[in-house]
Design a protein that fits this description.
Number of helices: 7
Number of strands: 2
Strand order of the largest sheet: 1-2
Radius of gyration: 32 Å
Strand content: under 5%
Order of helices and strands: HHHEEHHHH
Structural class: mainly alpha
């Protein structure tokens, strides 16, 4: 059982690295410069790793039927992509890919343009890639296999923790802008961006569009600061009005008392 878990973890890493290569090549051509794709520091795209393992567990028994592999690949990988997009958006308050411009899409998270390649990928994974990777992993000596597992697990977990800390900073800043204390929020955003250093620059290289997220965050914060200041001015103006009203009310009462007192004095003097 333990060996099986180790095996699937290494298979997960293999497909994560392969996915990183695919995404990096694709985005590098798109932006006409090298893009170190993936939100982790290392060369991993975990969604590909999860997809590879899911395909292995769920589709291996259909390895002799290419048509079934294709359609099940479309279903499994599309569901995975949809919910990965949803979860990452909920956690980090940012959408990492968007197919809204495609004619056939569901909430911009998945598109017909990606579903067809998903089906082909399902066939390629089961029919061609798994036999190769299975032979390589199963051909390793137990001691070497365990060493590779331990080392890669430590590196991957460390990378995961560090990278999520970076992304969580951006996510919390987008979330915190709802607070009234906008000056505090602005300080948090600026301090976080400055403290991220090379890790943040790595994130920008992987996701060039993240600059838009930061820009939008700053704009929202600027709007909140303006709203906050306007609200403070309104509160102050309303407070001043209430104070003036109270002062006027008590001044009238005091004047009335004084006038009444003076009248009594005048009446007393007239009696004399």
């Amino acid at each position: 059982m333990i060996h099986e878990i180790e095996f699937y973890f290494l298979l997960f890493l293999v497909y994560s690295i392969l996915g990183w290569i695919i995404e990096t090549v694709k985005k590098s051509f798109e932006f006409k410069r090298f893009i170190n794709r993936g939100f982790l520091i290392g060369p991993y795209c975990p969604i590909y790793g999860v997809g590879g393992v899911l395909a292995t567990l769920l589709l291996q028994k259909y390895s002799d039927d290419i048509v079934v592999l294709f359609f099940l690949g479309v279903i499994i990988f599309s569901i995975l992509e949809y919910y990965t997009s949803l979860v990452m958006e909920k956690i980090f308050h940012a959408r990492w890919w968007d197919y809204s411009q495609d004619k056939f899409n569901i909430n911009g998270r998945i598109s017909l343009n990606t579903m067809i390649p998903f089906g082909i990928l399902g066939v390629v994974v089961i029919k061609f890639l798994n036999p190769i990777f299975f032979n390589i992993l199963n051909g390793l000596k137990p001691q070497i296999f365990d060493i590779i597992f331990i080392v890669t697990l430590i590196l991957f977990v460390a990378d995961l923790v560090f990278s999520f800390n970076i992304l969580d900073g951006v996510g919390r800043e987008n979330k915190l802008i709802e607070k009234d204390n906008t000056e505090e929020v602005r300080s948090i955003v600026n301090a976080k961006i400055m403290s991220l250093g090379w890790g943040y620059r790595r994130l920008l290289r992987a996701f060039p569009n993240i600059k838009i997220i930061i820009k939008e965050t700053k704009e929202k914060i600027g709007l909140n600061i303006k709203e906050y200041n306007e609200r403070q001015q309104k509160i102050k103006a309303d407070g001043d009005k209430k104070i003036d009203k109270i002062k006027g009310k008590y001044n009238k009462k005091i004047k009335k008392i004084i006038d009444k007192y003076n009248k009594k004095i005048e009446e007393a003097e007239d009696e004399k």
